[in-house]
Design brief:
The protein is mainly α. It contains 3 helices and no strands. The chain is elongated and about 75 Å long.
Length: 74
Amino acid sequence: MLKKKFDCVEFMRQARDEISKAMEGMTREQQIAWLRAQPITDPYLRRLMERAYAKQDKETQEKNQHTADKPANP
């Protein structure tokens, strides 16, 4: 029988438990702030986050542009 050098199920369970313990008692907004404050060390995940932020920024700019184009109500 093959002996595993790395148990990814156990690794994920430990990571989940650590995150759950760290965020215990936080509001949803506090959890989001905590998650965003964590450093991203994985290069693939970093690229995904940068793309997500860029898309969010573009959508915000487009929304603001549409709002600015609307005439003000007298």
